[in-house]
Amino acid sequence: MNNTRLLYMESMWQTEGEATVEAVIPLEDKTIVVLDQTLFYAQGGGQPFDQGTIEGAKGVFRVNEVRFMEGVVKHGGMFESGSFEVGEKVKLHVEPARRALHSRLHSGGHIVDMALKRLGLIWKPFKGYHFPEGPYDEYVGTIEGDAEALRAKIEATCAAVIADKAETWIEFLPAGELVARGYDVPPIAPEKPLRLVHYGEEFAMPCGGTHVKCLAEVGTLRIRKVKQDKDHVRVAYEVA
Ligand SMILES: [Zn+2]
User: Fold this and answer.
1) Of 5, 27, 116, 123, whose CB is crowded by the most CB atoms within 10 A?
2) CATH number, position 84
3) CA Rg, the chain, in Å?
4) What is the pLDDT of residues 189-227, one digit of tens each?
5) Band (184; pLDDT cuts 50, 70, 90)
6) pTM, rounded to two decimals
7) How many A from CA of 45 to the centre of ligand 1?
């Protein structure tokens, strides 16, 4: 099977588009649809998958789950009506409210990174969990002084970052160029393109997730908790 072109990497704010059906695979409890290209975000990088529908001439498919496996995006779900033929052109409808929330949560995680940088805290990013249920960033680092005072300081700095309304822009780069610019190459599947996501001119990170176009769209970012766990620090947040 050909690798699926990941349109959401190139075009993060597009939720309507087209593709060609490459395979329809009926399984016991669901059907898998494979396309030549997709706007549906496949779960990964701490961000949940998109949902929505795929519409053909003679069928509508409800996408419940999207997974990336060895270069191929598998849209799991069921036909609400009819079916697709291999080779037919279909329309993609990504559920926009769900995507928008995931983008705000994902950008929220990087705004915390950006706030730490402004505060001069050199903690090494370890993990990001940007799901609606209890999102957090985890770093290798140590809290110096009072955790509550630090929590309030990070929250105030996040608000200042958001108030600056930086715009998001992207660059696709080979691994060598990322390293040359001082970034770590993220541990992602080799079939995925490497992309540097910039927030204005102040901050950038290699990332395959979806982001807001302007950081103001994140709204209010509250830091729920800053907690030391062995040599890791977990910064839990929420957006409203
Ligand atoms: Zn990211």
Assistant:
1) 116
2) 2.40.30.130
3) 19
4) 888 999 999 999 999 999 999 999 999 999 999 999 999
5) confident
6) 0.96
7) 7
